[in-house]
Amino acid sequence: MTSAATTTQRVVTTPLGRRRSDLLTKLPAAGALAWVRDGEGLVGWGEVDRLEVTGPGALERAAAWWAQRCAAADVVDPVGLPGSGPVLFGSVAFDPDRGTSVFVVPAVVLGRRDGQTWVTTTGDDHPEVTEFPAQAADVSIGRLTYTDGALDPVTWCGRVAEAVRRIAAGDLDKVVLARDVVVTADHPLDPRRLLLRLAARFPSCWTFAVEGLLGATPELLLRRTGDVVESRVLAGTAARSSDPAADTALGASLAGSAKDHAEHRYAIDSLAASLRPFCADLEVPARPAVLTLPNVRHLSSDVRGHLSADAPGLLELLAAVHPTAAVGGTPTPAAVELIREVEGMDRGRYAGPVGWVDARGDGEFGLALRCAQLTGGDGGAEARLFAGCGIVGDSDPMAELAETQAKLAAVQAALQD
Predict the structure, then answer these.
(1) Which residue from 130, 87, 104, 121 is spatially nearest to 16, judged by alpha carbons?
(2) Under a CB-based contact definition with an 8 Å cutoff, are residues 309 and 214 in contact?
(3) One of 26, 174, 364, 403 is an active-site residue; which one?
(4) Where does the sequence pass through the membrane (predicted)?
(5) pTM of model > 0.90
(6) Could you tell me if 192 and 136 are in contact, meaning their C-beta atoms sit under 8 angstroms apart?
């Protein structure tokens, strides 16, 4: 575990009224932090403190560290909304026991909720930032070159076939297998370009950035507001078509697909079983709805409940529910072991929780999907893109490969000129 020294610092939140400028255009290129949906959310820059943690109990240790910081802070917060006052951005490893999770306390946070805008500063050193106009997102980054990541498509399909075989043998019911591709541009990749384009194309998703991992996720793992806890579970996917009739048929096929409904049921049951012990009540839809995005459709269920009086904090709740079947599989321990065995890559923080938590314990964490990890390679012009899909007993490897291509298109479209 690494962290800068924790000292008492003054945290001041200042109301800015109903200003409606684009939050994402305020970010610097380096160290951008973001969690934005439909123009509201949080962006941050500068770094007051950070925690990097790995191994068993990583999230519990992060929670204790954050509680200690908040208890020592001298806070002035007349806004009193979720996300005002002290805020911690976090990006958690898919496998917290083995990967490194990163938490950052920004020097400056600009927030907007329910039309109210505010700025929070921590400490005395508040770095200046130059406005990044939205039209700068259209500046060319030159030619893009894509190469295989850990596995080429043929080999990856072979791993899917092996997973199907293991499912048929009764080793497990479902496993989520992901793949990566590497993209290199002629010019450095400015994270703001990707964030602005993703937010414009996917306004109903949560556009995020923490420690060079950025994307637009449609899946909300946990939101805590007071004693209310919410989640949006996605599992079961269909591609879109530019032909209206074909697109309608694809949507109807997803809505009636036994394979996709089975995959979704594993995911929703996994989340509910993990969350229910901490809740006084929990509402779980009997059937999913169809969520339509520009590039794909998903089966979607919104879960809502009230936490028990003795429920732990948001970071501890994340530790209890992650990974769900939506990104791991069922049963989860067997699925995670199979991922380690056959997937052929280190996921890092892909498919892990990403988001923020404040000093009150309110916060939002999604799953880091539809995302890119800026690697810093080739002068900052390189990134890894990720996509995965749920494998069940009747999965077809080529169809699953096509699903990953449809999901990769979300970030690829943001990169293209």
Answers:
(1) 121
(2) no
(3) 174
(4) none
(5) yes
(6) yes
